[in-house]
Amino acid sequence: MSDAGTSPSLTVLVVDDDYRVASVHVGFVDAVPGFRVAGQAHSAADALRLAGELRPDLVLMDIYLPDGDGLQVVRQLLAGPSAPAVIVISAANDVATVRQAVQLGALHYLVKPFGFAQLAERLTAFRRAYDDLNGLPTEATQHDIDRIFDLLRPGTPTQADALRRLAPTLQSVYDAVAASQGSLSANDVASAIGISRTTAQRALTQLEQSDVLKLELRYGATGRPEHRYGVKRR
Question: In the prediction, which pLDDT does 52 show?
Answer without folding.
Answer: 94
